[in-house]
Amino acid sequence: MKALVYQGPGKITLQDRPKPEISAPTDAIVRVLKTTLCGTDLHIVKGDVPSCTPGRILGHEGVGVVEAVGPAVTAFKKGDHVLISCVSSCGKCAYCRKQMYSHCTTGGWILGNTIDGTQAEFVRTPYADNSLYPIPNGADEEALVMLSDILPTGFECGVLNGQIQPGATVAIVGSGPIGLAALLTAQFFSPAEIIMVDLDDNRLAIAKTFGATQVVNSTDGKAVEAVMKLTENRGVDTAIEAVGIPATFEMCEKIVAAGGHIANIGVHGKKVDLHLETLWDRNISITTRLVDTATIPMLFKTVQAKKINPTLLITHHFTLDAILEAYETFGNAAKTKALKVIVTMA
Ligand SMILES: [Zn+2]
Ligand SMILES: [Zn+2]
Fold first, then answer.
1. Rounded to whole angstroms, how far apart are CA atoms 117 and 25?
2. From the CA of 321, how far away is ligand 1's center (Å)?
């Protein structure tokens, strides 16, 4: 089968690889129909993720058809259409029992990281009963690819942890795919204001069409002042960090209102200063989280009911043969205006 393989920093190739086989009774083999690329894949290609070693097939998102199941799999059978969670979880360990699937003692984010992933014609999915979700006939499969990772990430790490309330003022720092996913799902809770902050006017224009009430271009280094002005110097009830660099997290520390929440989504590779000298008396909370994908069934219902439309995030389509071009396009988002790309197995 064809597969996109990480070959070490800066190197990926499309290769012929043997089709995966069932190796544990709880495994399924899924024929991938559609997958996508994630910012995390770009981090891996840069060499930022040491757990992902050369020779690994990348990808942790997708939809497909069950090709085979191990003898312990009871919820799925050959021919079932499924959504693949980016997190594999046993369903039995202490973390899984708390729905903290990302910290499953024998699972977590392993697909396309420590085991072969979904950017291939077939993928072995461990703990199939707990890590796959059924897709009914006629569902929009491209929309559902957005439910493997990006929408639950924006929703769980940003919106739920940020405790967005009706009438609240929210700022989302970072208007990339994850920030936009938080923007879409924040609206479940009817905040009064959602202020999007980014460096890219194109992404801010998209944010407006997704429901942002205000946008702030931070290129001039005065985004904090702009947000404070928009909130009559009060700051925001929820500040969602959706970039993963010190400057954006520190911006959240400066714009959070008394009693507010800072919800971090970004993957941070560098230390960030926590300004307790200004925050110690502000009654704020700061949360961090790795996506658990526990909200996939709920998000699925909102997509089916057309409460949100995740296909808005899809800007480009490629076939698996052209996946290197997909990486180029996705990796140069400022130029190509890419948000999420769909890769279809031709
Ligand atoms: Zn991802
Ligand atoms: Zn577990």
1. 19
2. 21
Q: Mind listing the pLDDT tens digit for each residue in 49-85?
A: 999 999 999 999 999 999 999 999 999 999 999 999 9
pLDDT value of residue 41:
96
- Domain segments of the chain: what residues? 2-149+292-344, 152-287
Exposed e or buried b for every residue in 145-170, given b needs 16+ CB within 10 A?
bbbbbbbbbbbbbbbbbbebeeebbb
Is it true that domain 2-149+292-344 has CATH number 3.40.50.150?
Answer: no
Provide the 10 A C-beta neighbour count for residue 297. Answer: 12
User: Tokens in use for 162?
Assistant: 């940020």
pLDDT tens digits for range 267-302? 998 999 999 999 999 999 999 999 999 999 999 999
For residues 267 and 43, the answer to whether their CB atoms sit within 8 Å is: yes
Compute the mean pLDDT over every residue in the chain, rounded to the nearest whole number. 97
* Ligand showing the shortest atom-to-Cα distance for residue 101: 2
- To the question of domain 152-287 being in CATH 3.90.105.10, the answer is no
Q: Is the pTM of this model over 0.90?
A: yes
| Cβ contact 69:27 at 8 Å | yes
Cα 90 to ligand 2 centroid, rounded to whole Å: 4
